[in-house]
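Q: How do we represent a protein-ligand complex in a form that can be generated token by token?
A: Start from the inputs.
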Amino acid sequence: METADGRQAGAMVAPSLLAADRMHFGRELESVADADYLHVDVMDGHFVPPIAFGAIDVRSVAAASQVPLDVHLMVDNPDECIDQYLDTEARIVTFHWEAATHAHRLVEKTHQAGKLSGVALNPATPPEALRELLRWVDLVLVMTVDPGYGGQGIVEGSRDKVARTSRLCRELGVSPIIEVDGGVKTDNAGTLAAAGASLLVAGSAVFGREDRAAAIHELRLAAQEG
Ligand SMILES: O=C(CO)[C@@H](O)[C@H](O)COP(=O)(O)O
Ligand SMILES: [Co+2]
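Then emit the structure tokens for the protein with cobalt (II) ion bound:
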């Protein structure tokens, strides 16, 4: 189904494993087996205060699940460590614009490794910062919270930022996946999707529910109705 401006209606859903119960991780992975992607938050204790998931964990998840992996690198200087993640089964590897030194080289390396390349923007970074890079990347991750923690409320103005990102892509004639991450719930999935988001990351909205398949289904439905 297409929207009035020619976009595909609806969105894919990527449960964020940050919100999963580590003590029952295998069972948690099984509970989200029908997701479109699994979102893996890599945190280095510098770019963001917490430390979470490394390349070893990405490999373990890839071995335990058939769902493609979407790796979100919240690390200082991804130029120094991206190779470890390119050497995993991840389908998407996304670095932060604010942390990268040679963003174009990161995109090239990611493509050479046969993966989709994403660039993430903090809430305070405008989409216009990506004017050059947009023609090379496959995905733009619009952070809808300040990175570092799950379970936060969505930053005001996020819908508008997604719409501006989407407009800029149209202006440049490119169509990367637009991913939103942070505070995504059924009550905002529709407006985010209508603004142009096509991949919704949801941590607490999925793992905070007993029935994860229903949570994923309801997010997809909300995105479609938006
Ligand atoms: O990258 C991050 C946080 O830095 C996210 O991926 C969170 O893990 C999303 O969790 P919810 O806000 O959906 O609970
Ligand atoms: Co994330």
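Residues 12-225 form a domain with the TIM Barrel fold (CATH 3.20.20.70). The first strand starts at residue 12 and ends at 15.
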